[in-house]
Amino acid sequence: MTKFNDFEKNIDFSFWKELCHTKGKLRSYRRGECFAHTGDIIKRVGWVETGSFKHSLINEKGERKSIGFVFAGSVLANYQSAMMHKPLPNDIVALENSEVLEIPVNIIRDHIVNDPTINLKLAQELFAQAYESILDNYRYSAQQRYEMLVRRCPRILDTATVGDIASFLNISRRQLHRFMKR
User: Fold this and answer.
1) Less Cβ crowding at N or C end of the chain, within 10 Å?
2) CA distances, 56 to each of 17, 44, 47, 83, 165 (Å)
3) CA angle 6, 8, 14 (to 5 degrees)
4) Per-domain residue ranges for the chain?
5) Strand stretches in the chain, DSSP E
């Protein structure tokens, strides 16, 4: 599967995968089980071997909103928490039964901090992805963003709920259902 998150397309994460394979422990997550909770400071990070996860938060109205997805063959972490020791702003929850090779966060953090090139590249790519996401909300209609999402990740329709996809696109479920019928 192609990388879902743009920042992963421009960074060689083979070091992350290798560290997880050589020093990690395989952990299974059942659908709905949390990898990390809002307010936690991440103590472990991982490499998703199978399955998928969502990043979600509770808004001021008490509604759960999906803000990101992670699929097999990708890193599982949160930059702010892992690198800056900040509390997680969101939950990371398994969308389906999943397996993750986990390692203590300090192993990844030390590797990144000791490689200024990867450290800078990671920060730049995360910023670029965040900025592009903001711009895309203005550049494209909700219908176009839905179509782009499905082209980028067709499996998302089988993995994430309609509610997860709608909240990720910042549209109503009803609107998403209309798009899906077209």
Assistant:
1) C
2) 24, 18, 19, 20, 11
3) 165
4) 6-127, 140-182
5) 25-29, 34-36, 44-50, 52-58, 64-71, 75-76, 91-94, 98-104
**Which of 68, 84, 37 minimizes the C-alpha distance to 170?**
68
CA dihedral (98, 164, 35, 123) positive or negative: positive
Give the H or E element holding residue 147: helix 142-152
Q: Cα separation of 161 and 14, whole Å?
A: 30
- What span, in angstroms and rounded, lies between the C-alpha atoms of 22 and 169? 37
Q: What is the pLDDT of residues 142-181, one digit of tens each?
A: 999 999 999 998 889 999 999 999 999 999 999 999 999 8
Please give the class, per CATH, of domain 6-127: mainly beta
Number of H helices, E strands in the chain: 9, 8
Work out the end-to-end distance of the chain between its first and last CA atoms, rounded to an integer number of angstroms: 25
Q: Identify whether the C-beta of residue 96 lies closer than 8 Å to the C-beta of residue 110.
A: no
- For residue range 103-142, list pLDDT tens digits in order: 999 999 999 999 999 999 999 999 999 999 999 999 999 9
